[in-house]
Amino acid sequence: MAGNDWINSYLEAILDVGPGLDDKNSSLMLRERGKFSPTRYFVEEVITKFDETDLRRSWAMASSIRDSEERNTRLENMSWRIWNLARRKKKIGKESQRIMKQKSGLSRVPKPLLADMPEELCESEKGDTVSEISPKGVSTKGGMKRINSVDVLKNFATQQKEKKLYIVLISLHGLIRGENMELGRDSDTGGQVKYVVELARALGAMPGIYRVDLLTRQVSAPGVDWSYGEPTEMLTPLNDDDCESGESSGAYIIRIPFGPKDKYIPKELLWPHIPEFVDGALTYILQMSKVLSEQIGDGKPVWPASIHGHYADAGNAAALLSGALNVPMLFTGHSLGRDKLEQILKQGRQSKDDINTTYRIMRRIEAEEISVDTSEVIITSTKQEIDEQWGLYDAFDPVLERKLRARNRQNVSCLGRFMPRPIVIPPGMEFKHIVRNSGGAGDDSDGYQDGPSTPNPPVWSEVTRFFTNPHKPIILALARPDPKKNLTTLVKAFGECRALRDLANLTLIMGNRDNIDEMSATNSAVLLSILKLIDKYDMYGQVSYPKHHKQSEVPDIYRLAARTKGVFINPAFIEPFGLTLIEAAAYGLPMVATKNGGPVDIKKALDNGLLVDPHNQQSIADALLKLVADKQLWLKCKQNGLRNIHLFSWPEHCKTYLARIACCRPRHPQWESCAVGYEYSESHSPEDSLRDLNDLKISLDGFINDHGSVDTSQKSDMNSQSLKTKSSVGKKLENMSKLSFKEKPGGNKAETVGRTGSQDTIEFLGLRRKKTVFVVAVDCGLNNDFANIMKMILEIVRVDKKGENLGLIVSTASSISEIHSFMQSNKISSSEFDAVICNSGSDIYYPSSSSEGSPKSLPFVVDSDYSSHIDYRWGGDHLQNSLVHWASSLGGRKRDQEIVVACDSTSRHCFTFSIKNLESIPPVKDLREFLRKQSLRCQAVYCQNGTKLNVIPVVASRAQALRYLYVRWGMNLASTVVMMGDYGDTDYECLRGGIPKTMVINGVCNEARKLHSNRSYPLEHVITYDSPSVVQVEGCKKDQIIEAMAKLQV
Fold this sequence. Notes:
Layout: H1 4-17, E1 31-32, E2 35-36, H2 38-49, H3 52-64, H4 70-104, H5 111-116, H6 145-148, H7 154-160, E3 165-170, H8 191-204, E4 209-217, E5 232-234, E6 250-256, H9 274-295, E7 306-310, H10 311-325, E8 329-332, H11 337-347, H12 352-359, H13 361-374, E9 377-380, H14 383-389, H15 398-409, E10 421-424, H16 458-464, E11 474-478, H17 487-496, H18 498-503, E12 505-509, H19 521-536, E13 543-544, H20 554-563, E14 567-570, H21 579-586, E15 591-594, H22 599-606, E16 609-612, H23 617-629, H24 631-644, H25 650-663, H26 686-694, E17 703-704, E18 710-711, H27 720-736, E19 750-753, E20 762-765, E21 772-776, H28 784-797, E22 806-811, H29 816-825, E23 835-838, E24 843-847, E25 860-862, H30 864-869, H31 876-893, E26 900-902, E27 911-915, H32 924-933, E28 938-943, E29 948-953, H33 958-969, E30 976-981, H34 988-991, E31 997-1002, E32 1030-1034, H35 1038-1047
Parallel strand pairs: 3-4, 3-7, 4-6, 7-8, 8-9, 9-10, 11-12, 11-14, 12-13, 14-15, 15-16, 21-22, 21-30, 22-23, 30-31, 31-32
Antiparallel strand pairs: 1-2, 5-6, 17-18, 19-20, 23-24, 24-25, 26-27, 27-29, 28-29
Helix pairs in contact: 1-2, 2-4, 3-4, 9-10, 10-13, 10-33, 12-13, 17-19, 17-23
């Protein structure tokens, strides 16, 4: 045993702290008269953990180097006395064991009976000693074996073996890769990066999962490793045997290019570029859907079973993708904006305006509200996060959520209210790299024994080189130098507690750095504050703060702290997850952690430490001292952590995760996609399609599923005759859904072809073949300015005489009747357009040569597939009643004046109100707050210069309508040009971004500026002005428009 270095360090520590063993008032108790004695701690460590031969060796060595100095004489005497104490304790221990053995009566058990007993104890027989039993009576031996056992997933695998699910995860900010993660490199590359990578890898190894894609940002910038610019990275599976076989199976990191190509920017600056990511991700998912259709879908598209957004930015992106594809969405907030805002305001260092400028906090909060509106499941790590953090949001009320859930179980109407289901799923951890001591959780020898053939890891010397006495217990903190991590309070607590400094060392692992001056201003300020505190309290030789470490070396740092019988601390003001606490527990480290956030539930599950108020410096010091000084408490916390750590394994996490996905109502596009990348059979021709359709002279209002039966959830007012008719033609429509969609050369813009949805005919556009599509989205109303713009664009489009290259779409808040009247008055033919997006994006119409089945016999036909597509969480009549009540309440405030008046509308998914006085109505942010607090999931849009209010479904918008046309018909978004004014309706920001190019006509729609005067966040936080895909045009003149088109390369 190589124990003399440890013994000598303890003896040196005893001499440093005093009083010596000759103190007349001393005793063998660690605490005497309410005071802690570090001397007793080190004496007991030496007596308990080291053999008497090693103690005698230390005494002999001290004797050989004896000189006249008093310190060496004391060292010799102390070594001799401790050696004798150890011999006496060993003798007493042997006698005690002999007496206990006699009392147990095992010596009187007959040999035949002992022969029948198995060598291994059964679960009910384990835990007879104090070190093997917990207060809950659960065995501590063999706890880690449960984690890697195949039996844990046996039943689950049997149930899931027939499924082949495709799951999409999204995490946008930070630098994400599968190996050698640079955690702590910056404030965006932290625990969330590790979490999402390990979640993707763990899900990819689960039974029933065919493929998992983790979508993130592609970064090819100076100073950033080249690996972050690779479009695809396959994650190494946890176990090769667990993975499905197939070309595309497994888990992958998919990097989507968006934002500045040559810059790595912080998450606060990503907001203007989110639409670009959504468009790129949509293209990727459509392509992957086709690939998977060939591998596991029998030729049918395989859509994601769910899209899971992580953090506010990815949640916003997931909400848009979920709406565009009509698939379920899950959301994990990780760290919530409202809670962070409260925490920063409590510190009193910044005003709300300063916080918003620095962190874009209000845009982040709005993204989180949008995520709640759209999500079916909110995944949290703790119940405290649900009640105390999510409860701060307008869109979520824990009490109302439970009431709505109860009504759903009883099949009682929820009156148009919807609430996502919050689920607590503790974060998982991968244990395969953890090497357990053979003695089990109760073995306390691993901290002091070194195998003769295993050298110390290099990172140990990097950590301990700071210490005068490296064998004291290590208090370990692992966090970025970020103000919210509260490391300065920890250093103050350590510096001002003399007993703690005598007993332990402090190690701060604060990411990697080369030069403090090159760090971000926030991180460098925290680090400099810590260095000043070390100097102030003269803690040189007691605090370690290495500059570099690899992610692969973190386990070795945990092992070092556990070996010294140290403690792991997380003093953050709030900790959403606490993954480091779980990792520390897996290596046998007790914890001291903040009482705000995830550690509450972690402590409840593991029972391996203490919680503290992060604002209370004294409570932090007391908790650390208590855990380090009380060896019995330390050992109990270690054993509890090792015994219960399996609760946080990835298999347990994924089982619960997949169970929640299975509970989501299956949703996916209700048609066979004609999007780009899909090729159809040559055996069917357009003529066959037309011939079949001409035989069908019925209007189908409901959706007919693949079995030919009617899904009544799509239309509640079907009559019995239509049901019978639809059932009779269901099989024929099923066959029609597989027909090829080919276009006749030349000719008109609209061609009648097969339809795979809820109506028998539709005027299909050749959007897929258009080289450029113009979208006129100028929000000045249907006035003369709009007429002039339309006529000018039509002149440009008509240059393409056959209509083969240029397409035209109008996107407006007006109804289809108003648009038709406008066209008639300005002598514009409806056939000039490929599509009309009206009612703020809640309806899509196509020009039709026949007015049969059209509203008010107009020459347009509605896309009823789109109507079904956006029906998610639409409140219908209940929502309308609430809006009417809200409008009447506004009139009551103004002495019965009518301020907002409901208008008659033929649209099923748009409730329109006329605004008499814009000055008297609340800003749109207040209306959104009102609707969210009522659990009414919709979007409110002030439009036409504030004279009109449209309320539409939460997944509908004019931008989403363009994405629908891409998914449904394959319209090329990259060749689409959106023409806008310099201001517009309150949904203006949604159209300013993404892959489509933008042409801003300055001087148009200036009156709409007032709609944006009272926003939660400025437009500058969410739109970009320096993008090459955005051009500004001064005035609306044909020559300038053509010049701008040349700049956009269209």
